[in-house]
Design goal:
By secondary structure, the protein is mainly alpha-helical. It is 44% helix and 8% strand. The protein has 14 helices and six strands. Strands 1-2 form a two-stranded antiparallel ribbon. β5 and β6 (270-272) form a beta hairpin. The radius of gyration is 22 Å and the shape is elongated.
């Protein structure tokens, strides 16, 4: 083991975390798991080749990666945001925040940060110690430091779940890249969790996190986005995860599309079912979308397939 790796084994093993038996359970040794989970998400990005320079940006994608880990190991009632560890890791000596131009003094005077709007308003991103960056560019360094984070901050029963999630995340990101290149051949061989996550990543990215029907784009303070990835023709029918068989839709639009209450015409206009008007429905928001042109990705290769919409009109759309 190199001296640099030995150094970061020590530092990763003694992160400054909140220790409170009232807030945290014995599953994380009564310590806040935010920092180790964010670092695991960052290490995954090194492993996938997504970090090719020493600069980590506070993006919705990183927020999602953090939340995926969080949901795997924490109880459903526990809420979290990647903002806390992204900001507070600067206290551990190897994570250095780079301020937005003109915000350096404000950032240095800030002691707490809770919201993504604060983070992106003050922080361009973070750089790592140069020798830590070099360590994380190696497979050995990533494996050793991931093991330190998992073994130090999670009880034995949780460790396999964290490792499994790391593998799923890697598979999902690889599958996302394949889908964006219109290679769907790997879907049937993937675990369901990795396939679904990869499809969602590809479709939500293609639509820039905006609902194709109503146009809403909304990111919560903890980094979650309002849209889902919806299949036009269900996976069980075609086993087709190509982005052209997908739509980014908000929760309401997703539900109404799956239920056949709305469909899309051959000219890409929305059409509402007459059954929306049944009493006691009050579908004003959905009816207002009728005859509206759907929003499509900027890249025409990801535009939804007209034949898929024809299938939806035939097999899902509720007719009078």
């Amino acid at each position: 083991m190199s001296p640099a790796l030995e150094k970061y084994v020590r530092l990763f093993g003694k992160l400054r975390t909140d220790k409170n038996s009232q807030r945290w359970t014995d599953q994380t040794y009564f310590r806040a798991p935010h920092k180790p989970l964010l670092l695991l998400a960052v290490i995954d990005r090194f492993a996938d080749g997504e970090l090719t320079q020493n600069f980590i940006q506070p993006t919705p994608e990183l927020a999602q990666d953090f939340l995926i880990y969080w949901k795997r190991v924490m109880p459903p009632s526990a809420a979290a945001s990647y903002v806390l560890p992204f900001f507070h890791l600067q206290g551990d000596g190897f994570w250095h925040l780079r301020a937005v131009e003109g915000k350096a003094d404000t950032l240095s005077a800030t002691k707490q940060m809770k919201y993504a709007s604060q983070l992106v308003g003050m922080v361009q991103g973070a750089t790592l110690d140069a020798d830590l960056y070099d360590v994380l560019c190696t497979a050995e360094g990533r494996a050793v430091l991931s093991q330190v984070l998992i073994d130090t901050y999670f009880v034995e029963a949780l460790r396999p779940l964290v490792r499994e999630q790391s593998e799923i995340n890697t598979q999902a990101r690889t599958y996302c890249r394949q889908l964006l290149a219109h290679d769907t051949s790997h879907g049937p061989t993937l675990p369901r969790a990795a396939r679904k996550q990869g499809f969602r990543r590809a479709v939500v990215w293609a639509y820039e996190r905006r609902c194709a029907f109503c146009g809403i784009r909304l990111i919560t303070p903890d980094g979650r986005v309002v849209v889902d990835a919806a299949h036009i023709i269900p996976w069980k029918v075609t086993h087709n995860d190509d982005p052209q068989n997908g739509l980014a839709l908000c929760k309401l639009c997703h539900w109404t599309f799956d239920e056949g209450l709305v469909t899309v015409t051959s000219a890409y206009f929305l059409k509402g079912s007459e059954q929306l008007r049944f009493q006691p429905n009050l579908p004003a928001q959905i009816i207002s979308l009728t005859d509206r042109l759907i929003l499509k990705p900027d890249n025409p290769s990801y535009w939804p397939d007209a034949d898929a919409f024809a299938w939806h009109r035939e097999h899902r759309f509720l007719k009078p």
